[in-house]
User: What shape does this take?
Amino acid sequence: MAKGYNRPRTGKTGGGMMAQIQQMQQQMADAQAELAEETVEASVGGGVISVVMTGDQVCKEVRIAPELLEDADVEMLQDLIVSGINAALEKSRERSSEKMSPFTDMLGGLGLGL
Assistant: This one.
């Protein structure tokens, strides 16, 4: 056998690693599906605007307190809605980060730079 030749390894090492990767992929898919079902809520303006968003950043609901519409200040309403959506997005991103961090930490530990 020539020096420097590394024959292909057989056995459980390669197959075990592939099984672990497939398991991790399934766990990541499960976590993403859970995030799509979970919701976060953010309120602004003392609770006059509430925004409900899923963990995968889909806006599901915007609630406006009826008393806010009595003044009919359109610019204020627009600002509050934007603020509420941004606050809900931030909460959703935080939840997503919490849920996915075990996977990104693991992949980063493998040198994949995530």
Remarks:
- The chain has a mean pLDDT of 82.
